[in-house]
Specification:
Structural class: alpha/beta
Radius of gyration: 23 Å
Distance between the termini: 32 Å
Largest sheet: 9 strands, mixed
Low-confidence stretches: 458-505
Strand order of the largest sheet: 11-12-10-9-8-7-6-3-13
Number of helices: 21
Helix content: 25-40%
Mean pLDDT: 86
Length: 505
Amino acid sequence: MMFDLSNVELVGQRTPDPLRFAFQRKKSPHAGGMMHAVKGDDIQSSLEAAHSLVPANRFAPRCLYIHIPFCRVRCTYCNFFQYASSKNLIDSYVDALRKEIEWKAAQAWTQGAPFQAIYIGGGTPTDISAAQIHTIVSDIRRLFPLTPDCEITLEGRINRFGTDKFEAALEAGVNRFSFGVQSFNTKVRRSAKRLDDREVVIEKIQQLVSYNAAPIVLDLLYGLPYQTLDVWQQDLEDYLETGAHGVDLYQLIEMQGLPMAKMVEQGKLPHPADTQMKATMFEMGVNFMAKHHQKRLSVNHWASDNRERSIYNSLAKTTSEIMPLGAGAGGNVNGCQMMQTRDMDTYITAINENRYPVTMMTMAPANKAVAAEVKSAFDAGVVAEHKLDKVAGKGTFSALIPMFEAWEQNGLVYLERSDAEFAHRGYVKLTLAGQFWAVTLAQNLIEVIQGSAPKASDAMAPKIMGGMAMPKMGMPGTSSMPSDAKKTTSEDQKELESKAAHVAA
């Protein structure tokens, strides 16, 4: 295993302030490994084979993701918007979705093991009617094998989410609600095309919390236009005021071509926060949560009590297989990572013909568990030697120590070596700066292990090589791959993985 310790893209900058300056920018919304693209002609046969197999391990984590691709208004920062909410279009879509639910529920892979978590996301799932929410959830609970403690999350927005929809969801079996508040500040919300003013949002959340029927979880986004440090501080305080059971703190990831970028270019919006300002906001959020004794479940998620478990988010970002349902849904089954078509007509036609509505698909490599373990570790904030070596081969952690030492010198991690008393029990723990740059570090580690580490941009830079021979990858459960499949890098897969690993980022 070889890596260039002089490459700042790999190990970060040597700086007194690694939180703000270790790297130029976050690499991507999610980390991911190398995949192999499947040609269009082979997609259907590959998926038929994958869904016909009973899971080899019926105790492995599995989830369902159901996509509702409708929003009445497109938020300026959103890359998931597909269709404006229209009653006729929604009705036709729900009919097709129910057919897909019934069809996929009957397949061997589905019935072979129970599901631990279900996430109904979008889009804005709460834009559909109370009756439709009840019907979809009831269909899933009736047709799919679920664990007794299966987490069933309904995502949405506060606007027009009346008590009729809330109570219908509860009656059908929803036991967790996730609302994308993003910011409570009215000016910030209006500039991002979010509906309802601060006072309305707080009052509505407090009303839902008062039911004491299911955890209410919020998403807060930092780095938005007009979101000053004072505004961000108030956002954090407003979270506590609502009494919500949990919160995710996500940094704004700027993407070209989105409404926000165009409005900034046209002078209609100020620039969003730069990387250094977002790092400061992350630091404020971490310190605020610690001060107010919020329980940290991951590097960006906190719970106010034991009711919030965040099972889907934990599994989906890491090791779980996910069956996708609905137009625009992403998932992975038996090594097939797929993205279902976003085109409504194509989706409905495919479902009516009992065809998988998949237009984009890759096959995971034999060492797919390595990427899963790395993502899981960085989400938790700790890389454990015995866990990494189990999936990547004995000696992997030791081979990576020169890189871990470079990260430690650059203020990104604390390295805890194993000793004679506790053999193979070394750990790499993320500092505050490492937590902020967790996705970048995870991506770099995956690429080093898979042999595709980033190269220094300056070809004349002196090379300081570290590491040792790569241990053999002994991975069970490898997936078959068509002989004509084309190898793609993690860069080519960012769109697929970003959508397939839906974490509301």
